[in-house]
Protein: Endo-polygalacturonase
Amino acid sequence: MKGFSLFLAALYMNALLVDGRLAKSGSNKNDRSIHAPYDAFCLVNDDFAKGTLIINTPGTYKLCEDIVFDPIQNIELPIMEMYLPDFKVYDRNAYGLGFFAAIAISASNVEIYLNNHSIEQSEGHALMQRFFAVFELANSPFLKSVGPSQFVGNVEFESASNVGIYGPGIIGRSAHHGVHGNDNKNITIRDITFKDFEVAAVSLNNVDDAFIIGNTIPNNRHDVPIVGSFSAATQVSHYGKALKEMNFGMDIKGVYTSAAEVYERLVATIENVAYDVLFRNKGFINEKKHPEEYFLFHNKNSVVDGPCYAFVIHGKGPAVGGFGFELSDSSKMSSNIQIIDNVIENIKCWTNEVPAVVIEDVVQNDARGAILQLIKSTPEDNFLAINSDGTYKRNPVADMQIMTAYAIQQGLLNDNPNLQTVVNTISPSIVKWASSSNDVLVPQYRCNGDSMHHTVKGMTIIRVEDCEGFKISGNNIKGIENLSGEPFENCSSFHAGASKEDTSTQVGNVRVISVAAVTGYNTDKIASKSIIVSNEIKDVQGKSICGIDLQGKSDSCLIDYNIVDYSFMPEEGMEENFALRLRKFVDNSSDGIKAIEIGAHNEFDKSQIQILNNVLDEERMRRLEHLHRNLNIGNEWKLGGCPFGGR
Ligand SMILES: *[C@@H]1O[C@H](CO)[C@@H](O)[C@H](O)[C@H]1NC(C)=O
Ligand SMILES: *[C@@H]1O[C@H](CO)[C@@H](O)[C@H](O)[C@H]1NC(C)=O
Ligand SMILES: *[C@@H]1O[C@H](CO)[C@@H](O)[C@H](O)[C@H]1NC(C)=O
Ligand SMILES: *[C@@H]1O[C@H](CO)[C@@H](O)[C@H](O)[C@H]1NC(C)=O
Ligand SMILES: *[C@@H]1O[C@H](CO)[C@@H](O)[C@H](O)[C@H]1NC(C)=O
Structure:
């Protein structure tokens, strides 16, 4: 059956081609693998000893051995400083937060052949450098004035175009992305095995002409030792060092405490984690030897505790808000995205909701943008930096965050690329509370954010949004598992995202293919629909699953020949699983090229189609309302996108 539909789909797609580039779709994958040119420039581990390999001129490269990116600069230093770049070699602005990539490409016409080798971040660097991509397609991971440091600064942001990264070969362990980029053009990523990435195999914002073809994902990373807040600890330690050198100090819980003491305790904490994870305890924090470290940072699910994807394509800027609602103008949206014939398996994720304490309507972030985390969202044993009686509870991270905030408020730290101060929002009242032994705080929590207060969105395996023209076809996706717990119950407000859809139509902890704010191809030559065709989705675990989800103001898309089979019978109370869902603002009323066309050849086994732009039947409406309390709020994304939204 499958072979037959694929054959039909291939015929169908050929009829739909707009640019001829897809001619090989549906053909034997082996025909496509490209062998590295004989004269390509050879890359070896030595090329990475000083840190990121910067490619800023056109050229053809190949890996000549397996690369492990582990740029230790000085083994004598504390572990948070071992990997710090040499700022005589690396730009202080772009590299202020460390080596964000193994290879940073900021030129046009660059081709890289993995040449049947692998390239990955080392375990140690992945522990210490949480924001990372094996390949960054620019000279900086963020556009000017976005992101936690003054990335770019006075240097111009330069993005790559006409880049090809070709397998066979492996892009392995990465604390965030396999390949990441902003504002790119003509990017081909083909025949690669991506594994052990934490956030996404490929993440491109505002890209025109991206071809993600014939890649294989056997698994995302399943041995993550720590949660996101460990990065808050390493980042804030750099402030501690500066404050120690200034002989700073303040009252904490009514007792004068020096910066040296707080800093040294934090360093010891980080080093205990690092030595357990990297040497003594093979991947985990030792609970018996280091109970406090374990309580603060242990990752009980061993997978990333924030948003997670296989492939994500997005409009301009980082994908940290909710799902998109409307197309941006053409300078900001992505176009011609082809995600074809990829095999994606065994993706497990955990959305770790981090309740963010709010003072006078402001979320309390530290100097690097991490949440000042008072509690965990789990019901038991959740007090991190507040006691059950409302008094401050000391811990090495919160102490350092608060001391840094106080020093900033005293005007003792000046904003600079390595120690920025402008991001800090920890208020004087929080500082006062923590410095007193018996002041009581009655916290208000804003929910639906992660440890950096990005909107939590659950799992999305293929996400395309803010995009004109895409083809998602021939992808085979199976073994998707939601490891998230229940939402935090005591929220006073919710993190808002961008979309304006109706709360009553909000479902979805797992989206397998999700497109939002998209339309068809609209070139000068010829207009045609975007397609979601011949994808196979199987074995998905969770409570609220959408196989294919169309969101936001979207139109001009053909959906056909897809197979969705979750491999379980819907149980009582699990009817909110859908094979295909068109949300409320998706335009299914237009005719012709603008129409959303649901073809007759989809095989949606045991699950259903839900089209929300017409009134739902009453029975289903009641179920949705039951699942999503507090429906009286007009903006669904006030309650966040998902998975914890719409409560
Ligand atoms: C790639 O490497 C694997 C394992 O080392 C080997 O079995 C295979 O033949 C190689 N493939 C090519 C095309 O060189
Ligand atoms: C796209 O990039 C690839 C890889 O560098 C190059 O071979 C190709 O010519 C480019 N296509 C266009 C239309 O520029
Ligand atoms: C919920 O929050 C309110 C106000 O912040 C607080 O008074 C109450 O004790 C909290 N309840 C629980 C169960 O945490
Ligand atoms: C799936 O995730 C959501 C939140 O992300 C959670 O509330 C729910 O309990 C999870 N379901 C399962 C079956 O794990
Ligand atoms: C649009 O949605 C309505 C409501 O479910 C449905 O009856 C109709 O067939 C859909 N139109 C198209 C063109 O799919």
Q: What stands out?
A: Residues 591 and 597 are 9 Å apart (CA to CA). Residues 109, 111, 162-164, 186, 188 surround 2-acetamido-2-deoxy-beta-D-glucopyranose (ligand 2) (CB under 6 Å).
